Each structure stands twice: as structure tokens, then as C-alpha cells.
Amino acid sequence: MKLSSKIQRCGLSPMRQFYPREMAARARGVRVYHLNIGQPDVETPRAFFDAVGGFDAPVVAYPPAPGEERYVEALQTYYAGLGCSLEKEDILATFGGSEALEIAMACILDEGDEVLVPEPFYPNYTTFINVTGGRIRPIPTSAEEGYRFVSRERIEPLINQRTRAILVTTPGNPTGVVLSSEEMRLLADIAKERDLFLISDEVYREIVYTGEKATMLAYSDAAENVVIIDSVSKRFSTTGARVGALISRNRELMGQAMKWAQGRLCITALDQIGAARMYETLGEEYFASVREEYRARKDATVVALAKIPGVRFTSPEGAFYLMATLPVDDTEKLQYFLLDEFQDRGETMMYAPGAGFYDDPEQGRNKIRLACVRNAAELTRAVELLGIGIEAYNRKSEK
Ligand SMILES: Cc1ncc(COP(=O)(O)O)c(C=O)c1O
Fold it and tell me: In the CATH scheme, what is the code of domain 5-43+285-398?
């Protein structure tokens, strides 16, 4: 039977594709350090479990399609703290940032429409854009330029009649780039002038090492253009809760998004209650402590990586990832080698190969993304394993 060309244009996640080989390595008794997936080991706040455990209604009923009132109100208060006043109609509760992306693309894109995305990009953007029939048009960036991309010269020549949106991630996954206020201003100006949606994926908003946390919503003169992707996943280390939000002051867009929301009825009731409680009870003190933990992890990773000969990278300004260029021919092959043939004192490591972060996989062939989501000691050891593994792999390839 025929399957859709839209889904066939999507790929498997580079973060998850090595799972069977990892299982085989573990079955051989090898300990595997996971730097491949953005799954933090920072504990989920007690507030979440207390709220869910305290649920005492006789029926777990469908919440309203746009979201539990308490969750939406908690988000309004959180955004007021960022200096952004939002009406309830500006917020739609979603299954994580992932569904917010999916809904945004479904509402904006027709077959053949294009979204400008700085490259390298979060690989699942490909899925959300391709299943609507849309296409990513990459905004090229380079390690040498610290992956920065915001200038009229770089962006405007890529805009054509099929361009519908610019999608940016700040703080960035996988590059760790945090957009400055000047860069945000210019993006908002371009979006306004060219009548484009400006989708700003801010799921890592609190994790910034340089400067203040920020949101594109602050550029209220571009209110019709700006769409925010948000989530509790990384903010409160609750990736399994699946609670996020699509946020925009563009009422026409939100009106259309409501069709999707009503079609899928609602998102989970208990997770929204837990999410609301976290927003109600945790603030700057909590965010600062988590940020400092990630800073220590990022610093440990950077120090360890700098010891590996031939590795090039830029230290991230935010989020908990970094892109590195390795002195190998193919980082997918290296990953198979690390899982199938290599171990050092019974240990090996995993990363996400760079190919999946590029529209043209060849560009990422010698790159990797590391997720700094373990404690500093584990990260140091994992990166040490990477260095030993690179040496062993290159020795074997030379034979
Ligand atoms: C940049 C970015 N956007 C969106 C998501 C989706 O997150 P979730 O659906 O868990 O909120 C992720 C997850 O890793 C991400 O890195």
C-alpha cells in the first residue's frame, strides 16, 4: 500500500536511531554515557508530584480544548513577569513544544511553502514542516562565525513568494546561540516588512549563561507576526509531562489553531495541574539554581573537549547543547564504532551525529551535537571516552 510522500521526506531522529546498537552494547555489559538526547537528570520539582498526587476529583474529565484554566492563568502570570501582558485567547495549551510546532506549521503552511530556519537546526523541525508539505530553506551558519545568522544580507536574499515564516530557536539547540536584543529586533523588523510569521522556539528560555532571558513577544509592534513555542519540558525538567503552549497575539492564527485543539479534544489533565503548580510556586530562585547546574556541566564539557586534539567547537551561550567538529570522516560511522567495537574500562558514550541537523546531511558529516545533561564528572568521563574513541577509530581506519 502507498504511504505519503510527505512522511517519507521525514527522517528518523538522529537522537534515537542508535537505540538497537546501544541495547546490544549494554547486553555485553558495557556502560553507555548518554550525551545524545536532551533528557536532563535534574530532578523534577516536588511541586509537580504534590499537585498530581493531590488530585481528588471523582472523574479525570476532558479539560477545555485551549487548556486548564489554572494552567493558562499561570502562564499569563509567568509572562507578565517577563513584561508581556497576554490575554487567555493568546495561549493554547499543547502536548509539549512539539505539538505547538506541529499546530503552527499546520496553520501556516501549504504544499510547497517555505520556512527559513538557521542551520544546523533541531532535527524534528524537518518532520513538523515536511508533514504539512512545507520545506525548510536553511539560513546557512558556520562554526567559524559562532553560528550567528541575523543580518539582512544573509536572510533577505532567501525570501521568495513561497516563504511563510522564519523559525528561530533561542537559546539554540543544537548551537547554544542566544539571540541578542538587536538580533531579535532585526528579525521582528524583517518579519513585519515581509509579512512573515516569526516563530520563536523558546523552550530553553531560562537556560542562558550570557545576558538576560528574553522573549520575542516583547517586540509588540510585530504582535501579528510573532508566534512563541513554549514548554515545561526543559524549564522544569519534566519532559514526560508533555505540557507546552502555542502563544501568539495574532487572533486569526489562534482562531485557526483552535480547530486543531478542538479536533484533538484537549491535552492531559493531570500534567496541566502539575505544570500550573510549578509555575505558581517556582520562580527566579529555582531557575537560577538550575541554570548554575547547567553552567557547571557546560563548563566541564568545554574543558574536556578542549583536550581532544583536532576538535573544534564554540562554547554555548545558552541551552545545554554544543556542536563540535571532529577530526573524523563520518560521525555516524564513529558512533557505530563506539557502540559495536569500542570500550574503555567497560564504558562507551553516545552523541547525536551532525548529519541530521542539516538539510544537506553532508554538511554535518564530521560534526556532532553533545547534550550536557549529566553531572560534570560523568560529562568529563564521557568526553574523555570520545577522545579515546576518536583515536582508536582513526587508527583502525588507517589500517
Ligand atoms: C528546540 C526544541 N524545540 C522543541 C522541543 C520539544 O520539546 P517538548 O515537546 O518536550 O516540549 C525540543 C526538545 O528537545 C527542542 O530542543
Answer: 3.90.1150.10
